[in-house]
Design brief:
The longest helix is centred in the C-terminal third of the chain and has 21 residues. The N and C termini lie far apart (45 Å). This protein is globular. By secondary structure, the chain is mainly alpha-helical. Helices cover 66% and strands 0% of the residues. InterPro entries: SSU_processome_comp_20. One of its GO terms (cellular component) is small-subunit processome.
């Protein structure tokens, strides 16, 4: 599992380096095939009961890297990471109690997943598999938002000022309202 996490982390680091400066010497790029294979191995591991510790705190970095892969610039990787994140969330939704060793699935993590899922829906050529996977993620997340009456978390950056934060808080009273408004915006823009 450490090897998979390292591959996913390395792919993120290379993408971050690409965004910072195209001219710098950077580490060797990780091929999408290796990332895709790693995600598929991990997906198979989620189906095997012996890998129950896959969801333990010691593997939090692995899951953070899977979530980061949701926006990887290759559709197969996006689909695989989306399926994995869905399995990850289902694991914690279906489980009656939380083990002391389990990863903490907090509201910010779920909101990050939902936000990235909306970005996937905005891709120009989204496949049916991808849209189905994203729809399942959004439905599962929305159920959680309803059950827990989750508040929308305003993302802050160093450039934010207090008036912008206040506007965002007035716009979305809850995380569910944020989801519904994004669905409406995506639906209306796709018909124009």
């Amino acid at each position: 599992m450490k090897c998979i996490s390292t591959i996913l982390y390395s792919s993120k680091r290379v993408r971050d380096d690409d965004q910072e400066d195209e001219n710098d010497n950077k580490s060797e790029e990780i091929g999408w095939e290796l990332i895709y294979s790693s995600l598929n191995v991990l997906l198979k591991m989620t189906e095997i009961a012996e890998f129950d510790d896959l969801y333990s705190n010691k593997n939090k970095r692995l899951w953070d890297n899977v979530i980061d892969s949701l926006l990887y610039p290759h559709s197969w990787i996006r689909i695989s990471s989306s399926k994995l994140v869905l399995e990850f969330l289902k694991r914690f939704e279906e489980k009656d109690g939380k083990d002391d060793n389990d990863i903490e699935v907090d509201d910010l993590m779920v909101q990050t997943i939902v936000s990235r899922s909306f970005r996937q829906l905005g891709a120009p050529d989204i496949s049916e598999k991808m849209s189905t996977s994203v729809a399942r993620l959004l439905a599962l997340s929305s159920k959680r938002y309803i059950r827990e009456n989750t508040k929308y978390i305003v993302e802050t950056t160093n450039n934010d000022n207090s008036s912008e934060k206040a506007k965002a808080k007035k716009v979305y009273k809850s995380a569910l309202e944020w989801v519904v408004s994004h669905i409406i915006i995506n639906t209306s823009s796709s018909y124009n």
